[in-house]
Amino acid sequence: MFWLNLYLGYLSGASILEDEEGALAKVHSFVSGPTDPLPSARQKIIADFFRWARRHPRSSPPAVDLGFLYGRHDAITGGMSLNTERPVRVWEGFGPAAPSWEYGRPESGWLLMDAFLPGVWLCPVLRKESGLRRWFAGTPYGQVDVVPIEADAPRLSAYKLLVFPGWHTMEPEDMKKLISYVESGGTLVLGLPHLQSSADRTKILSSTDWPFVDPGLIERLCGIRIGGPGGAARNGEALGQTWDLQDSERGLLGVADILLRGAEVVGRADGRTLVVENKLGKGRTLTFTAYEFFGHRGLETLARAWLEKLARELPSDIRLEGGDGEVSFFVYPQADGRNRVYLINTDWTTPGNEKRCRLRARSGDALDVTVREGQVTEVVM
């Protein structure tokens, strides 16, 4: 696990790696010295890692096609807690002690990341233990970044797909930047909660009286005019199949009345417009038109399937097939037009286990690869 921390961090693009405990004075709860077995093993791993990194300098920034937008006033981290009786409060110590300020529907939308990091642990967002991986995950669609909404337009333009999973308080300048991103060829996925302009969780989570940013900007980015709350929906029709939109805890899905202003309806809910696609410049915006965050289980299931579809359609230079969701891979473009690909088996539970997968280039070339635990596999395509 310690080995994985170093190599995954470096290949993700990190330039500063710091051991939490220094591997000298203490290892968590017990005092130790540099020659004790565990600190000694960690020091050897660090030494071997620095030697490996010197032999494998990164020739460019990693190619990352996918980004999850960290919205204004979002709060995905809040301490480790599995206490279902007393959930952790958002912005602990700052927000009021009220149910709407506990981790809930906005933060649960981050579970969409599970499609890109299978089994991802997002404590204190609670999820079923059956599919949870406590520490590491593979990257079946390639590396994915968490991208702050404050990033400038050139930074955003590097991503082929950007997704708003959690809370966001929209501002006009954000809209202009996102419009520029889509016009330049990006694909953006968001919902009505990401178009509202309030920072008041109590108001937003307890009503549908939402203030939105400039309707003209919404029309430009999303191709719609929001007519107000429409009604509840039980079933959806999208992606060639039907979807159960109910949430046992949160009830039916509330869908807005939508007026089309250039967008195309690509998903419906009991006859209402649920998903629209707006083509803008070289790109497109996919908007879910429910008065609800992606943390609503009825919406999250559909949104996850849609994101997987979008990821499969991206014109990525390198794709991974197989690997059982346990293989992380990192793509570094080279000056000669080829890509240097590093693969790591993140299954640390069985020493020396192997994962078989296939790398496929956009050119159509393919290569079968076996990735062994505890080793970095390097391929040039």
Characterise this structure.
This protein has 3 domains: 2-55, no CATH class; 66-313, 3-Layer(aba) Sandwich (Rossmann fold), CATH 3.40.50; 318-380, no CATH class. The model has no long low-confidence stretch (mean pLDDT 91). It has helices spanning 2-11, 37-55, 105-108, 153-156, 172-183, 201-206, 215-222, 297-313, and strands at residues 26-27, 30-31, 66-70, 144-148, 161-163, 187-191, 224-233, 235-238, 241-244, 253-260, 264-269, 272-280, 283-288, 318-322, 327-333, 339-345, 354-361, 366-372, 376-380. It has 381 residues and is an alpha+beta fold. It has a 9-stranded mixed β-sheet with strand order 4-3-5-6-13-12-11-8-9, with helices on both faces. The protein has 8 helices and 19 strands.
Write the layout of secondary structure elements.
Layout: H1 2-11, E1 26-27, E2 30-31, H2 37-55, E3 66-70, H3 105-108, E4 144-148, H4 153-156, E5 161-163, H5 172-183, E6 187-191, H6 201-206, H7 215-222, E7 224-233, E8 235-238, E9 241-244, E10 253-260, E11 264-269, E12 272-280, E13 283-288, H8 297-313, E14 318-322, E15 327-333, E16 339-345, E17 354-361, E18 366-372, E19 376-380
Helix pairs in contact: 1-2, 5-7
